[in-house]
Fold:
Amino acid sequence: MSHAEFGGRVGVSQAAISRYANGLRWPKPEIISLIETATGGQVTVKDHYDAYQGARITKKAAA
Structure:
């Protein structure tokens, strides 16, 4: 499924999905919930939290 198709399922743009997938932007909680529903639970709130924490730790270590 393309980013554009998936974005249509969760109500955001193709660009937003691309940014989420590449770790350049973090979805709002209500979007995370829609992503979890659209993926049938394959991508969960915990997945987003873990990715965010990993990015924070990496950014902190680089500083």
